[in-house]
Design a protein that fits this description.
Layout (H helix, E strand, L loop, with lengths): L7 H16 L3 H15 L11 E4 L5 H6 L6 E5 L13 H11 L5 E5 L2 H7 L4 E7 L8 H11 E12 L1 H13 L3 H17 L6 E2 L5 E2 L10 H7 L2 H10 L2 E10 L2 E8 L2
Parallel strand pairs: 1-2, 1-4, 2-3, 4-5
Antiparallel strand pairs: 5-9, 6-7, 8-9
């Protein structure tokens, strides 16, 4: 899988160091531990055939790298624009592919593009489709589930790590238990942006003095709706309606779960 003399673990460590300026010191360590736990708790994930594996919302491609040890080919797709969560001015797939190429990973291809268009155009190509913290950013999950179902080979699986309502509640509680001057200043700036630029999505104060964080999902400005987006059925029911069989749902962290589903033969 990796065209060099280094062990796979060394390649992962080297990529982690290369990615650190983009994502900070802890990102790759946590993603690696999540992946290890996910495959321990859901071992069916590793039952792959020779068909490619697809990552939706791949970012820099670190999770695609982890999967490259188990899959013949891994394809990652993400938007053709910089992502505000990464410290880079170029699309994350461009920065990520450059790092993967530099360490000799030859079975991972990162692409910029629209994930719906890609899923619609590829036929029953993939043995596994996965994502990490993507589904809460998709406003039309029934469409996503249907497109994934069409892109998977019969018997193929899809697995998604998603935040839960606990994530939103903890963020709300922490914002109010430990507010800092910086937090308050950010809210003041958000109000200014709201009136100057007309932005609807912003952190705010309630009339009762509560701090309401900015919503994580870009398509809503309501924190009440954000909590509903995080509800487990928001992710699971569209998969079921698209024809998937839910195989398991397991916790990975205090604030996230992994949902594994299979397309019938």
């Amino acid at each position: 899988m990796v065209m060099c003399m280094k062990t796979f673990e060394n390649v992962v460590s080297q990529c982690g160091r290369e990615f650190e300026p983009f994502v900070g010191p802890d990102y790759c360590r946590v993603r690696t531990l999540e992946f290890q736990l996910q495959t321990m708790l859901q071992p069916a994930l590793l039952e792959l055939d020779d068909k490619p594996v697809l990552e939706l919302g791949c970012g820099l491609g670190f999770k695609s790298l982890l999967w490259s040890r188990h899959a013949r080919e891994v394809v990652g797709i993400d938007m053709d624009a910089p992502y505000h969560g990464f410290n880079t001015s170029e699309p994350s797939v461009v920065a990520g592919q450059r790092v993967l190429d530099s360490v000799g990973v030859n079975n991972v291809t990162l692409r910029a593009g629209d994930l719906f268009e890609h899923l619609d155009s590829c036929g029953e190509r993939y043995s596994l489709i996965f994502s990490d913290y993507l589904m809460e950013h998709i406003s039309d999950l029934p469409r996503l589930a249907s497109c994934m179902h069409k892109a998977l080979a019969p018997g193929g699986r899809t697995v998604h790590t998603v935040p839960t309502t606990q994530a939103g509640l903890l963020e709300l509680v922490r914002a109010n238990l430990e507010p800092s001057l910086r937090d308050v200043w950010e809210i003041v700036k958000n109000y200014a942006k709201r009136f100057v630029r007309g932005e609807k999505r912003h952190a705010r104060f309630t009339p009762g003095g509560w701090i309401v964080p900015i919503t994580h999902s870009e398509y809503t400005a309501s924190y009440n709706k954000q909590l509903r987006i995080y509800e487990l059925e928001s992710y699971v029911f569209p998969l079921m309606e698209a024809g998937f069989i839910i195989e398991s749902i397991v916790p990975l962290r205090e604030t996230s779960v992994s949902i594994l589903a299979r397309k019938a033969l």
